[in-house]
Design goal:
about 400 residues, alpha/beta, 8-stranded parallel beta sheet, 11 helices, 17 strands, about 25% strand
Length: about 400
């Protein structure tokens, strides 16, 4: 953060009337109607639309080959989670994955697209051990405080079926990760209770949160939700557990969706989605109406799972709107809020918005209003992180 005091003048917060934003010690110290004057040290916003910095609540920055020569996709069989995992394990070493150079390149890509904070999952398995944590820390040291990172130790290849992984997760928790992860306790490990017993024990004993990838469908997926909710309450981990993906929720009858949402509220569980095409839309409005924290993330970016992804959270909000069938202005704006202010919980913030007291993470775009920005996804003209200019005209400056 910077201790400099200055104004970001003549911007339109959330598309509202022109305003000046006073920034002091890296935070928003106040807002006022645009004065029409700029003093030395101020930044002229030129009437641009202002948004809070984007928060990517579900990323995998250690998996990417970003910055290397193009890596062709190699998995040719019918796509399954098991197949993608096996393909990644067979191919990643050929491309020196994970490595700090590619990870830093991804983080810079986040910044130039206006993402100032992220929660990232980091592979922990028998092949790489805890090297992914070292890679992410090295990349973060290179980037500095321009982007804030919450970390999840993620057992992509399973837990119980790979003896030794549970111990690695415990070591990662001792090494300072913010969350321990899990993956399809039924579909991958074939032991829902056994996997969850171990993961929740680590969380309680090491005082970390939990973030679980759940892809299983049908009654198995519903059973996993119920087990996670029950155990969260029993462990006293309300507010510290996240379900990622949970695609089955969108396929359930409304009465069952309502039951699951009620359970999420009681257990204080949050949810992240990557708005994957071809999946049933989440009941996101009901989740928000019941105050279930809901975040949006990019998932993997140019990795062994897919050559797609550019780290642009505004484009992800666009995708979420398309997947969810949104068209009205208020719903399009809600999608952008999901990708910005709505992500605060997932990176440990009580406040993240264009308001006094919030960290001065601000993105300027040339757009008429928020729906226009969502539909066109224009270049980020200026990105402030903690009151410091970290990107301008689509180029990272760190």
């Amino acid at each position: 953060m910077t201790d400099q005091k200055f104004k970001l003048t003549n911007v339109r917060p959330w598309g509202g009337p022109p305003a000046d934003i006073l920034i002091e010690n890296g935070k928003i110290a106040g807002m006022a109607p645009a004065s029409g004057t700029t003093e030395q040290g101020d930044i002229d916003g030129d009437g641009l639309l202002a948004l809070p910095g984007f928060i990517n609540t579900h990323a995998h920055v250690d998996k990417s080959w970003w910055g290397q020569h193009w890596v062709s996709y190699t998995y040719s069989e019918h796509p399954t989670v098991e197949g993608w995992i096996a393909n990644e394990r067979a191919e990643r070493g050929k491309h020196n994955i994970p490595n700090s150079s590619s990870t830093a390149a991804v983080l810079r890509q986040f910044l130039l697209n206006g993402t100032t904070a992220t929660r990232t999952h980091i592979d922990v398995d028998l092949g790489v051990g805890l090297r992914g944590l070292e890679v992410v820390r090295a990349a973060k040291e290179e980037i500095g405080d321009a982007i804030q990172i919450a970390t999840v130790a993620f057992p992509q290849d399973g837990v119980l079926r790979r003896p030794g992984v549970m111990k690695l997760l415990d070591e990662a928790a001792q090494e300072g990760v913010d969350f321990v992860g899990a993956l399809d306790p039924g579909g991958i490990d074939h032991d829902v209770r056994g996997q969850l017993d171990g993961i929740f024990d680590i969380a309680v004993n090491r005082n970390v949160g939990i973030d679980l990838h759940l892809h299983d469908f049908g009654s198995l997926g519903v059973y996993e939700f119920r087990e996670v909710m029950k155990r969260t309450i029993e462990a006293g981990l309300q507010g510290r557990v996240t379900i990622s993906h949970g695609f089955v929720l969108g396929t359930l009858p409304k009465t069952l969706q309502d039951e699951i949402i009620e359970g999420l509220v009681k257990a204080g569980i949050s949810w992240t989605t990557v708005a994957m095409g071809g999946t049933a839309p989440l009941p996101w409005q009901a989740m928000q109406q019941n105050s279930v924290p809901l975040g949006l993330g990019t998932d993997g970016i140019r990795d062994m799972w897919s050559p797609f992804g550019d780290g642009d959270m505004l484009r992800l909000a666009h995708q979420f709107a398309r997947v969810s069938g949104l068209r009205h202005d208020d719903k399009l704006e809600a999608a952008v809020k999901l990708a910005t202010a709505g992500g605060a919980h997932f990176v440990g913030r009580d406040l993240h918005d264009l308001t006094e007291g919030a960290r001065a993470d601000i993105v300027l775009v040339d757009a008429q209003n928020v729906p226009d920005a969502l539909v066109r996804c224009p270049t980020r003209k200026l990105v402030l992180s903690g009151g410091k200019v970290v990107a301008r005209d689509g180029e990272a400056l760190v």
